[in-house]
C-alpha cells in the first residue's frame, strides 16, 4: 500500500531521470508537468503523503498546537466586531504601531509606522514583493546562503534575475567569509540573509553579519533579511542586521507572525526599512494581494505586545522539543547537528545507510512511519552532492507526537 502511494511522491526524487517529462520549478522544490502545470511543492506533497499513510509528519514546518489564547481571542473578537472588509494596503494603523513598538522594545530600532513599514501576506509576500521591486535586469544578482528557503529561488526567477549561492557547511553551517566576499560583486543588487536559518538551524556569527554589511556597502547592494525565527534563537539574543552600524539605511527587514505565534495559516508578515525602499515594495505589493487578514492584523498587534515571558517561554519550549528529537535521532544512529534556532533539526543519515538522503526520505515512511525532507530540496541542483546525506526534521510538534516519532525512529537502529 505504502509503495503504491509512493508512486505519487516518487516524482519528487526521480524527476532528474525522466528526460522531457517533468521539469523542476525554479526553486527545485516544485514540479512543472510537460504541459507546464505546477505540481505541489515537496512540502505540500510530503504533508499529503503523511496524512494518507498515517506517517508522522516531521516534514513541513507548521506547529500542531494553537498559539496564545489572547491572540486567537482577539481575531475572534475582530470578526465579531466587523473587521471583515479590506484593510488599508499598508496594514491597519494599530498593527503598524505594534510592529514599530516591537522593533524598539526588542532591538532598539526606530521605525516610523507611517512611512517605514508595511504589512504583507506573510514573510513570503514581503520577500517576493521586495525582490520584484528591487530587481530589474537579467544581470542583477541576488546572493543567498545555501541551502535556502525554497521560495527564494522561485522569487528571484520570477523577477528575472540570477541567484548566487554561498555554501553553508556542516557541522556549524557558518559560511566561509572568503567565499562570501567572492560571491558579492557590483552586479549584486541584494544580499538575502535568513537568520536564524531554515533549514540548517544555524544562527550566523557576528562576523558574518558584519561582513554582509561591509560587502553591501562596498558594492552598493541592498540587504534583505528574513527573520521569521527572530524569537526562536535559543542561546543568544537575536541580532537584526539593521542594528549593525551603517546597515539600517540599506536594509529591508522582513518577519512574520506565523512562527512566533504558531499561526502559520494566518499569513501576516511585514517588512520595514528606509521609506523610499518601502514605497517601492508597496508599489508591487498592491498588485500582488493589495491587502490581507483584516481580522488577523489586530490579533497580531495583541501578540506583538505580549510580555517578554511569552517570547522566552515559546523559545524554551521549542528548544526542549529539539532536545527530545535530537536524542531520539542520535539513538537511532543519526549524526545530529543541534540547531541554534528555528523549527528544524538537521541530521546526517549516512551511518544508517542514508548517504542518499532523498532516497532515504522516500523510504523513511515505510521503514519508520515518519516523514522528513532531504536537505537537497533546498539547494540548487548542481550542488546537491554536497548535501547528500542530510535530512531535515521539524521539531515544532506536540511533545507526545515527538515521543511517538522517537519510538518509531528507534526501529531504524
Ligand atoms: C516559514 C518561513 C517563511 C514563510 O513565512 P510566512 O509568513 O508563512 O510567509 C519564510 N522564510 C522562512 C525561512 C520560513 O521558514
Automatic annotation (TrEMBL):
GO cellular component: a single term: cytoplasm
Residue ranges constituting the Aminotransferase class I/classII large domain according to the UniProt record: 55-390
Enzyme class, UniProt record, top EC level: transferase
UniProt KW keywords: Aminotransferase, Pyridoxal phosphate, Transferase
EC numbers for this chain: 2.6.1.1
Cofactor(s) listed: pyridoxal 5'-phosphate
InterPro entries according to UniProt: Aminotransferase_I/II_large (IPR004839), Kynurenine-oxoglutarate_AT (IPR051326), PyrdxlP-dep_Trfase (IPR015424), PyrdxlP-dep_Trfase_major (IPR015421), PyrdxlP-dep_Trfase_small (IPR015422)
Keyword set includes Electron transport: no
Keyword check for Transferase: yes
A Pfam family recorded for this sequence: Aminotran_1_2
A GO molecular function held by the record: pyridoxal phosphate binding
Family recorded in the similarity comment: Belongs to the class-I pyridoxal-phosphate-dependent aminotransferase family.
Protein name: Aspartate aminotransferase
Originating organism: Microbacterium esteraromaticum
Species lineage: Bacteria, Bacillati, Actinomycetota, Actinomycetes, Micrococcales
Amino acid at each position: 500500500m505504502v509503495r503504491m502511494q509512493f508512486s505519487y511522491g516518487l516524482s519528487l526524487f526521480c524527476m532528474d531521470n525522466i528526460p522531457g517529462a517533468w521539469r523542476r520549478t525554479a526553486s527545485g522544490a516544485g514540479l512543472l508537468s510537460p504541459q507546464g502545470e505546477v505540481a505541489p511543492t515537496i512540502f505540500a506533497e510530503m504533508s499529503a503523503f503523511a496524512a494518507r499513510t498515517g506517517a508522522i509528519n516531521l516534514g513541513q514546518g507548521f506547529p500542531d498546537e494553537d498559539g496564545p489564547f489572547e491572540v486567537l481571542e482577539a481575531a475572534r473578537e475582530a470578526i465579531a466586531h466587523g473587521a471583515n472588509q479590506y484593510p488599508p494596503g499598508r496594514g491597519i494603523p494599530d498593527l503598524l504601531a505594534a510592529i514599530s513598538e516591537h522593533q524598539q522594545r526588542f532591538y532598539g530600532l526606530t521605525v516610523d509606522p507611517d512611512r517605514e513599514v508595511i504589512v504583507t501576506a506573510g514573510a513570503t509576500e514581503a520577500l517576493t514583493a521586495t525582490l520584484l521591486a528591487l530587481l530589474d535586469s537579467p544581470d542583477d544578482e541576488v546572493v543567498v546562503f545555501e541551502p535556502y528557503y525554497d521560495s527564494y529561488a522561485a522569487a528571484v526567477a520570477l523577477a528575472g534575475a540570477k541567484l548566487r549561492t554561498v555554501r553553508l557547511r556542516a557541522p556549524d553551517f557558518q559560511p566561509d567569509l572568503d567565499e562570501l566576499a567572492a560571491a558579492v560583486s557590483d552586479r549584486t543588487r541584494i544580499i538575502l540573509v535568513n537568520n536564524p536559518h531554515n533549514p540548517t538551524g544555524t544562527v550566523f556569527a557576528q562576523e558574518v553579519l558584519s561582513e554582509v554589511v561591509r560587502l553591501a556597502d562596498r558594492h552598493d547592494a541592498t540587504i534583505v533579511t528574513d527573520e521569521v525565527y527572530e524569537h526562536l534563537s535559543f542561546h543568544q539574543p537575536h541580532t537584526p542586521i539593521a542594528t549593525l552600524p551603517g546597515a539600517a539605511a540599506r536594509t529591508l527587514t522582513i518577519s512574520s507572525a506565523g512562527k512566533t505565534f504558531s499561526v502559520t495559516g494566518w499569513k501576516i508578515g511585514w517588512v520595514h526599512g528606509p521609506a523610499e525602499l518601502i514605497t517601492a515594495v508597496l508599489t508591487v505589493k498592491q498588485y500582488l494581494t493589495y491587502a490581507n487578514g483584516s481580522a488577523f492584523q489586530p490579533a497580531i498587534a495583541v501578540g506583538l505586545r505580549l510580555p517578554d515571558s511569552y517570547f522566552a517561554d515559546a523559545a524554551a519550549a521549542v528548544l526542549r522539543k529539539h532536545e527530545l528529537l535530537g536524542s531520539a535521532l542520535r539513538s537511532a544512529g543519526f549524526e545530529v547537528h543541534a540547531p541554534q534556532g528555528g523549527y528544524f533539526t538537521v541530521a546526517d543519515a549516512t551511518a544508517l545507510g542514508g548517504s542518499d538522503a532523498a532516497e532515504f526520505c522516500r523510504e523513511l515512511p515505510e521503514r519508520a512511519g515518519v516523514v522528513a525532507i532531504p536537505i537537497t530540496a533546498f539547494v540548487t541542483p548542481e550542488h546537491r552532492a554536497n548535501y547528500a546525506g542530510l535530512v531535515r526534521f521539524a521539531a515544532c510538534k506536540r511533545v507526545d507526537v515527538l515521543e511517538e516519532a522517537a519510538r518509531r525512529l528507534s526501529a531504524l537502529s
